[in-house]
Design goal:
The chain is of the alpha/beta class and about 230 residues long. It has 10 helices and 9 strands. Helix 4 packs across helix 8 and helix 6 packs antiparallel against helix 9.
Length: about 230
């Protein structure tokens, strides 16, 4: 386990568990107890979910032939790329930091004074990226790819929706009954990375609307790998 990711996981678990569990109680757990209680390990035995979320980069060979890797690719007037492996709990922030998220002013039709916004909302980017991790079909031995273009971000994973369609979650408040990676998903819930009610999907659309951004140009979404 990566020490920095393990420390971050404890803090996230404390925040998610309060007030059911007090911080002092969690702080008193040894690493084995914490990982079991956070549903990252089973009876002290390391799982693939633990490696994906908290493992050191060199531990990813335990996942072979599966791949746990996020690729950031800049495809604009300049070209660049970088690869990110485990621990995904902290490396999602490293991926986000590569995105050129400049500020600019817009003039909404119903306001007299321009407002200043970042090009991309951090919560939306991380929500979409965490969903790519949670719903990836790791049996297809594929990478998660975030392509940064001049006017949009494109997130691609080998998976897509395991149950239902986009419209079910955005327009009909669907709550999924099944997940492809149920153990990984439960661990991510315990670390406050995602929810399992389907609310995050709809919230991404609502947050874009609040920002006066057209969804078809700036919405970040999961697309199945071909």
């Amino acid at each position: 386990m990566d020490d920095h990711a393990l420390s971050a996981a404890r803090e996230k678990f404390k925040s998610k568990s309060w007030p059911r569990l007090v911080s002092e109680e969690i702080a008193g757990w040894d690493t084995t107890t914490f990982l079991d209680r956070a549903k990252l390990t089973v009876n002290g035995k390391i799982t693939r979910a633990a490696i994906i979320l908290l493992g050191k980069p060199e531990a990813s060979y335990h996942l072979l032939p599966g791949i746990a890797q996020i690729v950031w690719k800049l495809d604009a007037e300049e070209k660049a790329y970088e690869h990110f492996g485990p621990p995904f709990l902290t490396n999602v922030n490293a991926v986000y930091s590569r995105i050129r998220n400049i500020k600019f002013k817009i003039q909404p039709f119903n306001l007299l004074i321009p407002i200043e916004l970042h090009k991309y909302d951090p919560w939306i980017v991380l929500e979409a990226l965490n969903n790519c991790i949670a719903h990836q079909d790791y049996g297809r031995n594929a990478r998660i790819i975030l392509t940064e273009k001049i006017d949009r971000l494109v997130l691609q994973n080998a998976g897509g929706f395991f149950e239902g369609t986009l419209e079910d979650y955005v327009l009909r408040d669907k709550t999924p009954e099944h997940y492809r990676n149920s153990f990984l998903v439960n661990a991510m819930v315990n670390l406050d990375m995602i929810d399992t009610m389907g609310y995050g999907i709809k919230k991404m659309f609502l947050e874009q609307r609040k920002r006066y951004f057209p969804l078809c140009r700036t919405m970040i979404w999961l697309t199945p790998a071909t």
